Structures are given as structure tokens and as C-alpha cells.
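Newbie here. two chains, one complex. Structure please?
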Amino acid sequence: MTFLRVTLFSLAVLLAYTLFANILPQVQSNPPAEEEIELGSLDRAGQIAWGERLFSGKGTCTLCHNKLGRAPDMLAMDLAEELRSRIEDPRYTGAAKGLEEAEAFEVYLRESMLEPSVYVVPGFGKKGTQDRESPMPRVDVPPISLTPAEIDALIAFLQDRAGVEITVPLPAAGTTAAAEAGADGEEEAPATTPEEVIDRYGCAACHDLDGSGADLGPPLAGIGARLDREALRRAILDPDAEVAPGYEPGLMPGDFGEQMRASELEILLDYLAGLDGGEPKP
Amino acid sequence: MKWRLLLCGLAAVGLAVVLPHFGLAAEDPGAPAPSPTAADYPRIAGMTGRPVVWALAQMHLFLAAFVLAVPMFVVAIELTGVLTRDERYDRMAHEFMKISMAAYAFTALTGGALALALFLFYPVLMGYLLRVFDGQVLIYALLFILESLLLYVYFYTWNALRYGDRKWIHLSIGVLLNAVGTTLMFVANAWATFMMAPSGVDEAGTPLGSVWAAMQGPLWNPLNLHRFLANIAYGGAIVGAYAAYRFLAARTAEERAHYDWMGYTANFIAILGFLPLPFAGYWLMAEIYAYSQQMGITAMGGVLAWLFIIQAVLIGSILLAANYYLWCGLMRTEGGRRFVPWVKYIAAVLVAGFLVWVTPHTLILTPQEVLAIGGTNHPLLGPLGIMPAKNTAVNMMLLATFLSFQLFRRASRTPTVPWAWIGNCVIAALYLAATLNIVGAGIYGYVTPTVYKVGASVPQVLSTLAVIVFALVIEAFMYRGAVTRPVAWGRMSTRSQYALFVLPVAFTWLMALMGYIRSSVRTYWHVYTIMKDRSPDAYIPTIGEAGNFITVITLVFMAVIVFIFWLSQVGDTRQQAPAAEGGR
């Protein structure tokens, strides 16, 4: 009897731990896929969108560059002003000094990825190095291993954020890059129709679309008449930059840039831009 | 039975060491790390390697932790028996060893099976590791054989070398046994830490010629210390469960008293090993961050971050159970009753600390809940989700646990030195100063950049350690010549014993969980940054999947431990001789 009681008690404790593990958020992290995709047809918007995905995906930048303060939150700051002040800082010894602004930004950003200790933002150096050594890893070696085309895409994305001319070249014909896994780690074929995109990213759960009745976000009927294509892109990628009157900030996920493929974003933008006051035209 | 199991284990280890040299070791010793393809991971009987290797490795680690830990505290208990001339210590130490002996054969068996599984399922990886660690694998095998010999000599000469100078010879064998066992563990740890933070090889993985350099990775010593302490806590928890079961099944008052005392000692050992463990864990994690900030963040702030909430639940239940057992123990002495009113305050600190520790930073919410709260971080509870709050909580919980332990020790003794009141005042001041420092550093952590936030946890840790060390030193002098009250061993409630079952279950689950995290921080690399894992199992499973797997392994381990307990008991039983025919 004692044995039975002890066994049942131990099993109950064990099951409680198991249950707890199963009610927490479940995320499976897959390795990045290694098959290559052709990049030669990428236009500038596609390169920027790709750079944004790399920023939070393969580049793993958002692991540290976030609001938790491990590294400067590049997406929250006035990036142009910040880069200007860093390049002008007497502690900066890199090659960007004296160059024209957009080119200087390119040189500085490339340096910061390939030689992170060239300039360390005060307060963010390795402990005990008086901000002379950066804890940031080089991005072109394992485990990150970004290719030159990927580094260019990241620079394009950040130059775009800073609002300066994009100076990095587009990928040449024949350039390839590793295809990336989806947000949940599963390799999933990209959505090819607006319905698939809307369904996959759950837009109608919050926005009234085609009679869904949701009211957490503004209705999408006629959105194409209210916002142009670039404003729509901003509203998807950086939803809190400008919030429609009467709606709460912080509700729309800010990681669609990470979740969506560039082709899916373009399909969605085409569709939304077409909702110009009439009936939805998928 | 035990010998046969051990021989099987030895044979398996021998095969595992020798077999790969026929097929794998033909690689050029100066070549870079190989790059395996999906075809290099065989399926055997339809199974991929990870579940098999995971289960065997975890089982081996459970058993190895137990059999390495038990001789450590057994030697300490045996020495206490010699110094105090109290035979009870010797009897208890021998009984602990008896349990460990039955477990040793299973450890060898699972170790051999693990080695074979590794070579069968991951031939390319193991070939590379053999090349990096060269002849070290033979040293490992020799150490294992030496460990086995010493263990059997130590156990079987217990009664032959029991008194006088012979006892010192026996104790010396015990010390030697522990030295070999600990070295064995350190050698095995070097393989694990090489895979996490490779050293002694160039960027392409080419060995630079020194096995010692490959062993001395940045994580080796932190892991050595962490496992050393964790083993002691774990070993204490397992034998505590044995004592609790024997206590519950006891038929005489004498048996109850003996197993109550054994349970108390086991709980004491478990707490002793456990109290400094968070600090060793802190060192390990600090070294991981120093080696690769990315790896550190993957563990603490990335896909694995939620696991630390489970860790909080497990450690919280361990601390609550251990404290509960100590509080129940206050009733063993008349002097303990005066401390009972303190219990509710200690419990309040523990529960508050536990609640802070399990508070996640980001909540799982529906859109309506997000709207109602105004974001995914709760405005009041959200700040409790970050490290300064967690560090404050865990240090306060450790202080509270140490206070419970101190009260229990004081329950049976009254100091006679005239300066006792000064000693008490100094100890109280230590607690107060430590509390202010821990809470103050926690608040400072909110208003400072991350790099200083991490640094703020150091004074918190030092405060807790200072209380433990200085209070123990002061008490050691203060209680010299103290008046001792009789302890009514055996006067414990049945309920209190169940706390001793929570400890091994939680420890076992926790060990497997932390093993899963340690292995997962390598993400999709066999050897981080050098050799990719291209097997179909190269993903980090969900918490639920890992949790279910851990539960299955824990269940199997519990079944093995019950069998081991039974084995150690059945050795003491003797069938009665059949009655003579004429007597019928």
C-alpha cells in the first residue's frame, strides 16, 4: 500500500510538470534550409524586404538589437541621426569619415557587421574593455555566415530605414542565396494568392475584411483609396509608426516583415491597393 | 547479477572504443572537420539517432550522477563516524553505498549502450571527436576500469577495514575512488563542452595537435563545477527518497528513527549541494555569454527562454519541499517549537519569490486580452519578468532556505558562550544587510543598461554567499560546548516524508530539462560553428515534445531506481531454512 501511494504521488508530481510544459507556447526551431534560390530578378523593394527578413531571421540581429537594451535598438531610433553622430564621434576610427552621407552609412554599416569593434557605442562594449571591444559577432563567419549579397541586403534595409539613398548594388544575375525557413521553422511554400496570404497571416481576425466583422483594427474596405502602396507597406511592416485614429497602438504584430516572404508582401500590397472603395477584387 | 551487468557494460564500452578504429579513424589527423550529409545518419529499425541517443545519454547521466555523488558524501559521513566515534554514521554510510553499488552496474550498462549508439547513429561526428581527442578515449576507459576496481574494493572491504588504522586505509581508498570518479566526469564533460565551444582546433575544425587544448574550452570548468555540485544534490535527493520509503514502511520505532535520521541527512546533503548551485549556473551562463552572446541569448532570451519558467517551477518546488521537510523537523525537539511562528514569514518569502520567478515577461494572450491590458506586457507584472526581478527572487529564496536550515540546527542546541547574543546580532545584521543589498541591486538593475544589469547580479550572489559562509563560521564558534537537547528521531509526520519524494522527481526532471537546454543552445550544429548537424533531427523540439520525452525518461529511471532499491534490500533478506523432515 505504501509503495502504491508513493508511486501515485510521484506520478502526480511528474504529470504536473509535464502538463505545465505542454501549456506553454510551443515553438519548434528548425535549421535554416540550405537549398539555394535565384536572386538575379530581385528589384530594390525586394532587396529591402529581404534585408528586413535577414535582420530578424538568419542575421539574428533582433536577438540583441531590441528594446531589451542588449544592443542599440536600431528599429526604434532615428537611424540617420544616430549614424551621423557615430561617424562624427572622435572615437570612430573607421573609413566612413569624410564620405558623402549615403555612402558613409554604407561603409559604417558594413564595418559594424564585419569588424564590430571599429566603433563601440558607449555602454555597449564587453565588460571590462571600456567600450573598446564589441560583444557583437562578425556576421560573415559561422554561426551567422551571411553572404556578401545578404550583407548588401541588410545595408539596403538599414539605409532605407535611415531615409538615405541606397548605394549597395542589386544582386547580379546568377547570384544565389540560401532559402530561409518560415517563421515557425517549418519550410512552407509561399502563398501565391491574396486569399492565401490573408488566411496565412490572419488579417481578417482583426480587420473587417469581406464581412469578417473584426474591429480590433481599421476596416480594410476602401483602404487602397486612403493609403498609397508605400504607406500600406509601412503600415504592415511598422504598424505602430502611424496608428489610425480611434485604434490602439501595439496590437498589430510588428514582425510581419520577418514572417512574410517578399513575394507574399507584394501580393498583399497589390490586393490592398486595389481595394479602392468598391468591392474587394481578389 | 550486478557483476554480469557490469561485465556487459564493460564489454559494450570496450567495443565502442575499439570498433570505430576499424572504420573511422582512418581519417587524416590534420584534416578539417568533416561536413556530413543527410546520408551519413543511418536509420536503424526505422529509428533516427536522436531519440535513442537522448534517452540513453540521459539515463546514463542520471545514474552516473548518482553513483559519482554517493561515494563523495559517504566518505564524509564515514569520516564523521570516525571523528565522533558514533557507529550510526558508519552504518548509514554503508547503507548508502549499498544502494549505489546496485546502481553502478546499470550505469556501466547504459554508458556502454550510449557509446555504441553514438558510433552507430553518428559515425562521422564520433570519428571527428575521436580524432580531436585522440588517445584520450583510452584514458577514459582506463579511468572507468580503475573506478570500478576501487568502488568494489571500497565497498567489499568495509567490514574488513573497519577499525583503527585500517579504517584510515579504507577512507583513503574512498578518497582515491572519488578522485578517479571526479576525473572521469571531467574527461567526459570535455567532450560536451568542446561541442558547445570548441577549442584546440582552428576555424575549420582542424585539430591543432593538443588534446589538452581541446579539453580546456571556456565552458569546461564552469560545467565541471556545476555538475559536481548538482551530482551531490541529486545523490542526496535519491537516497532521501530511499530513506523516506523505508521510514513509511518501517515496522518498529527503531527502524523509523534510523530512517528518519537517514532522510534528514540526505535532505541536508541535497540542500548543501543545491544552495551554491545557482551560483555555479550563473558562472556557466556568464561564460556562455562571454563565449558567444548569441548562444547566451538563444538560451535565455530566444526560443529556449520559456524553459527557464519551467526551471523556476521545478526549483521552486524543490525549495518549497526541502523547507517544508525542515519545518516539520522542528517538531522533533522541544526547542524547535519556539521557531514555529517564524515559519509563516519564511513561507511568505518563498512563495513571493516563487511567484516572481514564474512570472513571464511576455504573456500569452488573446487579442481581446491584449486590448484590455494595452500590450503583451502586463503593466504591473511585466517588470517582474526580467532578470533583475528573477535574481532578486532566487537570492531571497536561498536566504530563506538557509534560515530554515539554521533554525532547524538551533532547535536542538543552546549556546553557552557569553557572547552568543553578539553572535546573534551579527548574524541578524548579515541577513538585513544582504536583504538590502539584494533588493537594492535588483532595483538598480531596472535603471541601468544590460551590461551593468548582468553585473548587478554579482553583488546579489555575493550577499547570499556571505550570509551562508559567515553565519556558518560564527555558529561554528558560537555553538562550541552548547547544551544539546535530545532529538526525537522518528517523530515525523507521514506527510513530511512525501516532501522527500518531490525532491528526486523534481531533480530528475530538472536535470533532463537543463541537459536539453545545454544541448539545444548549439542549435543546428554538432560542434558549434564548425560542424553542422544535417540529420533529420537537427531541429529544437517544442517544449511540449521535450517535456513529454523527459517524462518518459524520468519514468524509466524511476522504475530502474525502484528496482535498485529492491535489489539493495533483497540482499539483506534470508530465506528460512526448510524445516527438517522429522519436524513435520
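Moderator note: The CA atoms of residues 17 and 47 of chain A lie 46 Å apart. Residues 194-273 of chain A form a domain with the Cytochrome Bc1 Complex; Chain D, domain 2 fold (CATH 1.10.760.10). Thread marked as resolved.
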